[in-house]
Design goal:
Elements (H helix, E strand, L loop, with lengths): L2 H26 L3 E4 L4 H6 L1 H11 L3 E5 L6 H11 L2 E6 L5 H9 L5 H11 L5 H15 L3 E4 L10 H20 L3 E5 L13 H8 L6 E5 H6 L4 H7 L4 E6 L1 E2 L5 E2 L8 H11 L3 E4 L7 H12 L4
Parallel strand pairs: 1-2, 1-10, 2-3, 3-4, 4-5, 5-6, 6-7, 7-10
Antiparallel strand pairs: 8-9
Helix pairs in contact: 1-7, 3-4, 5-6, 7-8, 8-9, 11-12
């Protein structure tokens, strides 16, 4: 399928995307969600059973990583069986999911993941990667597609960062034409000075705010020394999703509600900024189901 054919087909599908998404949201408005990266190892051991446990805890939304290495039709059917909806996915091209799974199991390093990522998801391949994601979103009933990381070499100098911003705008345009919303998810490195500038500020300034929206990871903002509330207040309309992840006093990950991040304050600001979806996340938890249950118990009254 060439780009013109893809865009024409996407335009026809856009209204059905919106209708399906609205129907899903009607029962899940203001619900607390879970980024399924948190429970990757549990999903691999018992996919249907883990989804059922997530729903029984009280979660109503989940954010996927691609289609979790599976046929998206099978994933959609499994979610439907337990009453979960998925508004959002993180980009995942080809067989890259297997590398993320091995990373979650602590079998490979971040450097190994970066190498595989650069082979499949470079800025030069943004168009086919996003087109693949849009096709998954159609099946899964998702409205949001998220680019989850910028690597050091993509912000090492101004030329590289300019190319990255152009790729984000292209992704935003493709998603908008398909009736979807493109998001960029932050980590800490891009919120610190690189080559005399703060890459995150450049991304905000040099991409189209109508088509490149933001998913705020509060842990990584705090790790970079940036106040998440300040970001939400200064760029309110661009933040549509949040990752809720806590920090121990030493900077390690912590179960939400057991660390040092002030979630009541952040969630008040997120509500005022118009954030729609909130996802609990914990990177590589030793006991993921306990983590997600305790996080839900703490956050559900606050969201």
């Amino acid at each position: 399928m060439n780009r013109r054919e893809f865009i024409a087909r996407s335009a026809v599908l856009a209204s059905s995307f919106a209708t399906g998404w609205a129907a899903g949201r009607a029962s899940a408005d203001r619900a607390l969600g879970l980024q399924l990266f948190t429970v990757l190892t549990a999903l691999e051991q018992d996919f249907d059973g883990t989804l059922q446990r997530i729903a029984r805890i009280g979660y109503r939304e989940v954010e996927t990583i691609g289609a979790l290495g599976r046929d998206p039709r099978e994933v959609r059917a499994a979610l439907d069986r337990v009453g979960l909806v998925t508004p959002s996915q993180h980009l995942m091209a080809g067989d890259l999911y297997g590398n993320f799974l091995r990373f979650a199991r602590r079998e490979i390093s971040e450097q190994d993941v970066q190498k595989a990522w650069n082979e499949l998801m470079s800025v030069e391949r943004m168009e086919p990667v996003v087109e693949e994601a849009i096709e998954r979103a159609r099946i899964l009933g998702q409205r949001h597609i998220v680019l989850q990381i910028i690597w050091p070499h993509q912000m090492a100098n101004r030329a590289a960062l300019r190319d990255f911003c152009l790729a984000l705008d292209l992704a935003g345009e493709l998603c908008a034409k398909a009736g979807l919303v493109f998001n960029f998810h932050n980590h800490a490195d891009e919120m610190r000075v690189v080559d005399g500038r703060v890459p995150y500020d450049v991304i905000l300034a040099e991409t189209n705010p109508e088509k490149v929206r933001l998913e705020l990871d509060v842990y990584w903002a705090v790790r970079a020394g940036v106040d998440p509330v300040s970001l939400l207040e200064r760029h309110g309309g661009r933040y549509v999703q949040c990752h809720l992840k806590d920090s121990a006093a030493n900077g390690d990950f912590a179960t939400v509600g057991r660390g040092v991040i002030d979630f009541p304050r952040i969630l008040r600001a997120a509500r005022a900024a118009g954030v729609v979806h909130h996802y609990v996340e914990y990177d590589r938890a030793d006991d993921p189901m306990t983590v997600v249950r305790e996080a839900y118990d703490y956050l559900a009254p606050l969201v």
